[in-house]
Specification:
The chain has about 375 residues and is an alpha/beta fold. It folds into three domains: about 130 residues, Response regulator (Rossmann fold); about 100 residues, Arc Repressor Mutant, subunit A (Orthogonal Bundle); about 140 residues, Serine Threonine Protein Phosphatase 5, Tetratricopeptide repeat, CATH 1.25.40. The protein is about 55% helix and about 15% strand. It contains 15 helices and twelve strands. The strands form three sheets. A five-stranded parallel sheet has the order 2-1-3-4-5, sandwiched between helices. The protein has a four-stranded mixed sheet with strand order 8-7-6-12. The chain has a three-stranded antiparallel sheet with strand order 9-11-10. Helix 2 runs parallel beside helix 3 and helix 12 packs antiparallel against helix 13. It is flat, with a radius of gyration of 28 Å.
Length: about 375
Amino acid sequence: MRVICIDDERLSLDFLEKQLEELDDVSVQATFTNPFDGLEYILQEDIDLAFLDIQMPNLNGIELAEKILEEKPYVVIIFVTAYNEFAVEAFQLNALDYIVKPTTHDRLNMTLKRAKKEIDLYAKEKQLQKEHLLHIKLTPFLAFADENNEFKPLQWRTRKAEELFVYLLQNSNVLIEKSSLIELLWGDYDIEKSYALLYTTIYNVRKQLKQYHKHIKLTNRSDGYILELDKVEVDIFTWEKEIASLSPVSEETIEDYETVMELNDGVYLEHYDYIWLESEKHRLNSIWMRTASQMANYYKAASDWKNSIKWFNDIIERYPTTEEAHFNLMKMYEKNGDFTLMMKQYSELNKALRKELEGRPSDFIVEWYVDKLK
């Protein structure tokens, strides 16, 4: 259980932390004497259980619990108090338990057993909710998960129907004006013809999405359309949100980065050549490239050659002309005394640049390579 403790009295806080660390299946993530700092931490991190002192200045434990449960209703709250009269109010706030100071091992054990049952119940509910989600992939192509959670593309009636859906999905829960859709998709047609094509395509999109009516609703509102999602998880949206929530790459976060990067298993809509899509493709691909480079360089600095090489190769697999990745691999192979792999990597870079860009490696890479061959 991931636990946080908040108490304005440092001695009480240290005593509780010491007792908790002596128990099994408990990991004290942080302790705070300032309730506002503790609240900020809880809202940013994954916490299972919070021990809150009730009597604190500026923001008491009950007020703090209200703020926590408003944003994270499944965090288990345990009040720690020297005053029994607070117990009733604590339970009214849906606190799981309360402990009277000074805490004892037996009382903590009993409380934590109750907390674990509550946390396990939440985990099951969360898994059940996840099973009822509609999963959509946009990397590297548009696909929907079937009942066996296998991703399959839909058979769209026309390419325009698929393009229209992708655009609305990328701008989900936002009203898109009909005039904007016409300019985007049928700008070369006269007004009467373009509106007829829009209505026909909207009809085809609705028909195609009928099987997902519980999760996706395409609504006609005034002069536009809005695609509303309910319990839908889109891989690239989830990935970007999770990446943004992580702290910088470090020993503490690298495993989280590994997990989150698995959500992005291909270039965003790789083979879709919609002109309007290019800027979003570039933005998302840049986030992936920056994150992958940070991970590769973290592993390199930690002398974890295996994982560093793996991530530099992943970058090259997606973007073969990325000189930085090739050059890093060349330097790592040279440092390890593997000149055969160093030369092979230079050859791959040279071939990729000639094929994709009709160019050659940068002068500083050529100079470095020639120097190492001497």
